[in-house]
Amino acid sequence: MRTFGRKGLTPVAAPVVAPAPPVELPPETPAFEVDDPPHAGRALFEIVERVVSNDRGRAEDVLAMLAAAAGFSCILAAFDEVREAGVSPQGLGMILVEPKDKHRYWFGDLPNRYLVDGEDTVIGHTLGAVRRRGGDMTSEVIEGILRRVAGSVGTPLFGVPVVSALHMPGDEPINYVKFLWPKLAAALDQYQVPIRQRPSTFGVALETAIDALAGATPSVGMTVAAQIVIECAVPMAKLDPARFGF
Asked: Domain of life, per the record (predicted)?
C-alpha cells in the first residue's frame, strides 16, 4: 500500500480525481451479512487507496475521500427511511434549509443517527479506531464542528475542512463525492450492502484506513486523522440527495 508506505507522505496537493473505471470485484462477491465484519468496508478502503496510490499519495486524501462519501451515505440512509415511511422528510423530523446559494440542505436527528449517534456510525467507528491508537476527539469539539457546519451553510466556507495547511486534503469533500460516489456505490451494490448499513460500512473502511495510517505513517497523528474525517463527513451528511440525482 504505497499511500501509507514507509517512505513517508509528501504534504502536497492530491492527485486530480477523475471519473474512475467500473469497479472490479470477484465474480462471486458474497452478500453483506450484518453479523459478520463487512468485507465491503475493506473493499471501499482498497478502492480509494488505489485512486491515490502513487509515490506522492497522501493519507490525508484517503481519509477525506472515504469520510466525504461516508457522510453522503448518511443522508441517503435517512432518505431511505423517509421513502419507506411514505412521508415527507419533515414528517420524520428533518429540517430543510434553503440559503442564498440556491441549494437545499437537510438537518435533523435522523441523518445524525447514522453519522454520529453511537458506536456503529461513521464517527463512532472513526473514534473507536483513533482511541485504540492513543488519539481522541472530545464530544465538545465534535459538537463545535457540527455547529460551525450548520452556520456555514450557503457560504463559501461550507464543506471546507478546518485543518492545518500541512494536513489539508487536496480537494473539497463535495468534489470527492461527485467523482467517487458512483464507483463506491457500485462496490456496495455488488456486495449487496443495504442502504442503511452503508454508513457503518464506511465506518469500517475508515477504521481500516486509520489502522493502516497508524501502522506505517507517523506523520499524521490520530487526533488529526479524526479531525479530517469529521470535518469532511459532517457537511456531506447535510447535502440534498436530489443535487446528485437521487
From this structure: Bacteria
Which residue did the predictor score with more confidence, 89 or 215? 89
Tens-digit pLDDT profile for residues 157-209: 999 999 999 999 999 999 999 999 999 999 999 999 999 999 999 999 999 99
Residue 161 lies in a domain: yes
CA distances from 185 to 24, 178, 234 (A): 12, 12, 19
Other Cβ atoms closer than 10 A to 101:
12
Burial class (CB in 10 A: 0-12, 13-18, 19+), 91: exposed
Q: For residue 189, what are the CA distances in angstroms to 31, 70, 118, 183, 210?
A: 9, 15, 25, 10, 24
Rounded to two decimals, the pTM is 0.85
Cell 469520510 identifies what position? 67
CA 159 to chain centre: 12
Give the domain extent around 51.
38-240
Query: For residue 10, what are the CA distances in angstroms to 3, 6, 170?
Result: 10, 12, 12
Inside any domain, residue 29: no
| 4: in domain | no
Number of domain units in the chain: 1
Task: Report CA Rg, the chain.
Answer: 17
